[in-house]
Design a protein that fits this description.
single chain
Length: about 240
């Protein structure tokens, strides 16, 4: 946490976050639909593949990507806030406590910075998440299945309250998720470079560094999914 960053660095994090979150969440939209519907009605599908099969039979291939529009917009905005503000708040933390203490208490810095960033990111995400969930879980014929009309109906009939009524459960899901993700990621990277890849980081080629980053992210992803699962059910409902 000792590096100093300029505006161009934060902007790169913002754009990287938009691509990372927006594209990946959109890509797994079929899994998200099955998950949300099973959270509403556990007996709807026997499992993931049964869900895929029944959705395809009833709604066609496009049914598997129902809600992809608000997913792409919402999670792109969330990624911008999450990754951009995380790096910004890490620098703020270092500026407040000093560089020496920032390194000494870096786990606290990771946790506080990620929680603060996710708090903002979820405000950006919430209206689009509300639209997506309503599109994916409403009974057929009761709610629009295209992005624009769905958002307009929710906004017109329920106003700002309708767009943001899921914010508290979203915070309950995403803030622990993000804290675990960033803390676990940062500390796992440290573990690899301290115990497995023990040469100075700059002596490893880009492919090796990327592999370490990927493995650390994978491990962190498993841990944060376990932490956030209970609150995820509340978001769908």
């Amino acid at each position: 946490m000792s590096d100093k960053h300029d505006l161009s660095y934060y902007l790169k994090c913002v754009m990287g976050g938009a691509l990372a979150c927006g594209l990946t969440h959109t890509a797994v939209c079929p899994l998200d639909i099955v998950k949300c519907r099973r959270q509403i009605d556990p007996g709807m599908y026997k499992g993931v593949f049964d869900g895929f099969s029944k959705i395809k039979a009833a709604e066609g291939l496009k049914g598997l990507y129902l809600g992809w529009g608000p997913t792409l917009v919402g999670y792109s905005l969330q990624g911008m806030g999450k990754f951009g503000f995380y790096e910004f708040f890490k620098d703020v933390f270092a500026g407040i406590v000093g560089q020496e203490n920032a390194v000494k208490y870096r786990t606290i810095g990771f946790a506080v910075s990620s929680a603060s960033a996710e708090f903002i990111a979820d405000i950006l995400l919430c209206p689009w998440e509300a639209t997506k969930v309503r599109m994916q879980t409403s009974l057929p014929g009761t709610f629009p299945t295209t992005f624009g009309p769905a958002f307009n109906k929710l906004k017109t009939e329920e106003g700002t309250q309708g767009l943001y009524k899921g914010l508290s459960p979203l915070w309950a899901r995403q803030i622990p998720y993000t804290v675990m993700k960033f803390v676990a990621f940062e500390r796992t990277v440290e573990f690899f470079y301290k115990n497995v890849f023990t040469k100075p980081k700059n002596e490893y080629n880009k492919a090796t560094q990327l592999s370490i980053t990927f493995a650390s992210g994978y491990i962190a992803g498993i841990l944060c999914a376990l932490v956030s699962q209970p609150a995820d059910t509340m978001v769908s409902k």
